[in-house]
Amino acid sequence: MTAVPERLRPLLAPESPLQDLARRFVAAGHSLYLVGGSVRDALLGVTKPGADYDLTTDARPDAILELVRGWADPVWLQGQAFGTIGAAKGEMRMEITTFRAEVYRPDSRKPSVTFSDSLPTDLSRRDFTVNAGGLDDLLVHKRLRTPLDPEVSFLDDPLRMLRAARFMAGLGLEPDPALVAAATDLAGRLEVVSAERIRDELSKLLVVDDPSAGLWFLVRTGLADEFLPELTALALEQDPIHHHKDVLAHTIAVVAKTRPELVVRLAALLHDIGKPKTRSFGPDGVSFHLHDVVGARMAEERLRALRFPKEIIEAVTQLVLLHLRFHTYKMGWTDKAIRRYVRDAGPLLDELNHLVRCDCTTRNQAKARALGRRMDDLEARIADLAEREELASIRPALDGHRVMELLDVPPGKVVGEALAMLLDARIDEGPMTEEEAERRLLAWAEERGLRP
Fold it and tell me: How many other CB atoms sit within 10 Å of the CB of residue 115?
C-alpha cells in the first residue's frame, strides 16, 4: 500500500466498495481498473460531492451485469449498448465499462463501439493523457495532450475538442500546440455531435471557477462558431473611434466575475449578444439601442437549439432582457420603480442584481465604486420597502373570480384587462384595501361602458 498516493488510499482501502468489487471481478477471472476523472481528481486533492467513479475491465457487458447484480444496490443499463453498466453501493456510484475503442462514423452523431481485450488500447482511446494515467502531464508539466495524435483522438469523438476547453479552464492546463492546431482544423466535425452532448459539456465548462481560458480557446479555434456563433460575433469594438474594449473581452470578464452557477453564467455569456445586430453610429458616438430586447430573443433561440430545459431558457432570457433595467434609474428610485423592478425580476431578483454588479468591468475605479453605491442603495431600498409591503408577492387586491362577480362577466379578455389595471395601480400606488380596489374596478368598468 506504500506505493499508493495518500489521496487515493481511501478509494483503495480493503473495506472500500471498490476493493470489494475488484475482488469479485478477480475471482471471476477478470481485471478491474479505476481510471478517468476520479483518479485525476484524487491526485489533485479535488473533492466533488456525488462524484461518480469510472472503472474499466476486460469483462464484456453481460459479464459485468452478472457480477454486480446482487452486490450493488441499484443497477442501471442505459449505457449497456456502449459497454457501460452503472451501479451504486451505498453512497458510491460507479460506471463500469468494457475495454473499448470507439470511433465516430463520418455521417453519424453516435459512436460506433468496438470492444478490446487490452488496457493500453483502452487508455489510448481516452480523451486526454491526464485521464489515462499521464501523471507527469497532470502534476508536473500541467499540460493538456491526447494519448494518440490529436487528429485521431478528436475524430474518435469530436466532443473532446469542447472538453479540452473545460480541462484547460478547470485544471489550469496548457494545451499542446498540436492539440490547438487539430481543434482548429477539425472544428467543423462538431456537426456530428448531438446538441444535448454539446449542451452538457458547455454547462460543465461554465461552472468551473474561471471559464475564461476555455472560452477564449473555443473562440480562437473556431469551435464556438459551430454551436454558439453569437459569441464569436462579439469580437467587435464598442466604439471603433475611441478604441474601447471589445464586447467579447467584456463578456468573458463578466462570466468570470459571476458566481459559478449555470443560470447566471449563461446569462453573463449571452447578456450582450444583441449588440452586433443593434450597433449604430450617431453624433454622440456608438449606441446599441434595444440590444437587451434583441439579445433576449437571440438567447432564447440559441438555448432552444442547444436543448436546454424550459426553466433554464426562461430564466436566462429574463435576465438578459432585464440586465439594463437598473441603468434606466440613474436619477434615483421611486417606490413605484422599485415595485416594478422587483415584480419583473420575480424569483430572479438576486441573480439579476448579481449580474448587474458583475457587468461593470471598467478599470475606472471611481466609476466602479459609483455603480456599486447605486446598487447598494437599490438593495437597501428594496429591503426597506419589503418591510412595509408584501414586495415579494405583488398582486392585484382582487382575484379573477371577484372581478367576474362584480362586473357580471364571463372569463375572458375583460377580466385580464381588469386585473392588469389593478396590478398597475398596486405597483404605482402601493397596497390598497379590497374596498378601494372594488371602487377602482367599478369606475374603470363604467368608463368602458361596462355596467354590471
Answer: 16
What is the dihedral sign for C-alpha 395, 396, 399, 404?
negative
For cell 481510471, what's the residue?
Answer: 35
pLDDT of 391 = 63
Q: Look at phi and psi of residue 412 and say left if phi exceeds 0, alpha if psi is from -120 to 50, else beta.
A: left
Residue 83 CB contacts under 8 Å (≥ 6 apart), including other chains: 60, 61, 97, 98, 100, 113, 115
Residue 404 has pLDDT above 80, yes or no: yes
Could you write out the three-class secondary structure of 325-344? HHHHHCCCCCHHHHHHHHHH
Q: What is the pLDDT of residue 103?
A: 59
Residue 117 CB neighbours (<10 A) = 10
Cβ proximity of 56 and 33 under 8 Å? yes
pLDDT exceeds 50 at position 1: no
Contact 339, 316 (CB under 8 A): no
The three grid cell numbers given for residue 16, joined into one nine-digit string: 472500500
Reply yes or no on whether the pLDDT at 149 is more than 70.
yes
* Nearest-angstrom CA–CA distance, 316 and 323: 10
Q: Are 132 and 163 in contact (CB under 8 A)?
A: no
pLDDT > 90? residue 373: no
- The pTM of this model reads 0.79
pLDDT at 315: 97
CB 407 within 8 A of CB 444: no
Q: pLDDT at residue 213 above 60?
A: yes
pLDDT at 245: 62
CA 278 to chain centroid, in Å, comes to 26
Reply yes or no on whether the pLDDT at 250 is more than 50. yes
